[in-house]
Write a structure and sequence with these properties.
single chain; 421 residues; mainly alpha; two-stranded antiparallel ribbon
């Protein structure tokens, strides 16, 4: 009987072992590359196999991940700063756009008001001359006072308008809005293509924002641009730096001797023809604007004086002629100056001269950089230059060849570098 119990117990134990053997998971080798994970032992806790790993390399990886997640890098900080500058630039675009529309409204409203006052005063002066001829003293005095007051008010408003030049102010803000939009897209391109973002990218963006703020100020008092400068200078909206270094990983960075010579010729042609032409045009428009700015208030002042002496026997009919005709002339002059937006034309020519000055400095800064790898990519720079001048690559190369030293004898027949304006 004892022998039978021992036999049954041994059979039961062997069956349990066989059951455990059948249900034990088989760990097969895998092609996955798990770095340095070493399995030390398999233990069954509550019938479930557990994988224990005590690798030192695993602990090092976890430590690096924790360190990188807990300490932000300088690149991520620069990205946040650049995004902050991007938001400020977008706000600047809206500010200059709104102020430009406001100052354009100033020009229209003030011009209409001045012309209305001037024409009304001229008509009143003519009526005063008629009343003077029929010796109606009371009516004549009222008409003389009304005409003189209107002329004096128009003279005061004209002096303010000629000082601030509302049409030029509006053009300044339009240019600023366009250039801030351009800077906005440039920062977006930097964020998309440059990796990693460095502090120099943030500094360059800040310098460009400050240069634009200086070139196109918002307030009128204190920092307003001189509307009648003694010497015409081009608009400068870029930071005055030696060169702009850009990351490009190429052998010669797209540059060769032929391209350098081509860029030198383009730079000389832009400086000699396009830049000089727009500076000349700016000077011509400035002189016309000065003349009209002096004539308008002068004519209304003479008309006011004529209105005061209308009907006086000492001067005869001359005061009436001054009061009526000079008022009409003043209306014509004001319409030419502010209706024709001569100040806006001057600012447009000045900005065009600044555009060519910027191109000249952009080419010069790249050519003066001794380390070719720090220049802007040569092929990309050639394409950009051609598009800025409104030309194809073949036209740009032909232009450089025609402007070479051997062909500079025909300077009078030389064409402008730009086809845009």
């Amino acid at each position: 009987m004892a022998t039978l119990q021992v036999s049954l117990c041994s059979s039961s134990c062997s069956l349990r072992k066989t059951k455990y053997t059948l249900h034990t998971p088989q760990f097969k080798s895998s092609n996955l590359n798990v770095p340095n994970l070493l399995v030390e032992d398999l233990s069954h806790k509550n019938g479930v196999p557990t994988l224990k790993t005590t690798s030192s390399s695993t602990r090092e990886i976890e430590k690096k991940i924790f360190t990188n997640s807990s300490q932000p890098s300088s690149s991520s900080e620069a990205v946040r700063q650049l995004y902050a500058i991007l938001e400020i630039v977008a706000d600047r675009v809206e500010m200059h756009k709104n102020i430009g529309a406001q100052r354009d409204n100033w020009n229209q409203l003030l011009l209409n008001s001045v012309n209305g006052m001037t024409m009304t005063a001229s008509i009143i002066a003519a009526l005063g001359a008629i009343n003077g001829s029929i010796n109606n003293g009371a009516n004549l005095l009222a008409l003389k006072l009304s005409s003189s007051i209107l002329y004096l008010a128009a003279t005061g408003i004209l002096l303010v308008m000629n000082k601030i030049q509302p049409s030029q102010l509006a053009e300044e803000q339009r240019n600023a809005s366009r250039l801030f939009k351009q800077l906005h897209e440039e920062i977006k391109t930097t964020l998309a293509l440059t990796n990693p973002i460095a502090s120099i990218d943030v500094n360059n963006a800040m310098q460009k924002v400050l240069a634009l703020d200086k070139a196109y100020p918002l307030p009128l008092l204190g920092v307003m641009l001189e509307k009648f400068p003694p010497i015409v200078k081009p608009a400068v909206w870029w930071p005055q730096a030696k060169s702009e270094h850009k990351r490009v990983e190429m052998g010669k960075n797209g540059w060769n001797e032929k391209l350098e010579e081509e860029m030198k010729e383009i730079e000389e042609l832009v400086k000699r023809k396009d830049y000089a032409e727009y500076v000349r045009l700016s000077n011509v428009v400035l002189k016309v604007n000065k003349l009209l700015a002096i004539c308008g208030p002068l004519l209304t002042s003479l008309a006011a004086i004529g209105s005061c002496f209308t009907g006086s026997p000492c001067f005869g009919s001359w005061p009436a002629i001054l009061g009526a005709s000079f008022g009409a002339f003043a209306t014509v002059v004001n319409s030419l100056e502010h209706g024709g937006q001569i100040g806006m034309v001057f600012e447009m020519y000045r900005s065009s001269a600044g555009f060519y000055k910027h191109m000249e400095e952009m080419i010069e800064s790249n050519l003066e950089e001794s380390e070719v790898d720090k220049r802007e990519n040569g092929e990309l720079f050639e394409v950009k230059t051609a598009l800025l001048l409104g030309r194809s690559l073949s036209e740009l190369r032909e232009l450089a060849n025609s402007s070479s030293l051997s062909s500079r004898i025909r300077k009078a027949e030389e064409e402008f570098a730009s086809k845009l304006f």
